[in-house]
Input
Amino acid sequence: MDALAPIPARGRTFSSRCSIRLSDMDARGRLRLDAVARYLQDVASDDVDDTGWGSPDHLWVIRRIQIDVVVPFLEDRELELTTWCSGLAAVAAGRRWSLVGNRGGKIDADSVWIHLGARRQARLVSIRALASTPKLPPVGSDCDAGVTTFSNHI
Output
């Protein structure tokens, strides 16, 4: 499997820190995949709320995700999550994440999200409006579902 693109050197990213709780670990102390999914959803929701492209006017539903456990979270008890927009299409957007633990754990994730309006119907995203959002100068790498990637020069 090819490595996912690293955190961009420039452009908007959104980061958060959290503790790995007992309920997030299996019997051997490893971070559970369902906890990873919850962390990814939480930081993505916080990010879109911060940009003004969150609920209730905008709902983003995940269509595809790839999670790469680069180094397992074995003894990590804290992690830093960083996310960023990796591309846009008419009704979809790419999102990347990087999770880094305090003891060397590392997970990378890539996804495609579909944009739904307040009535929960797929609606076209104005790429020009989204790209011009001051808090969202996107950067990107290629992702599927016809997502167009672009540089910070838009």
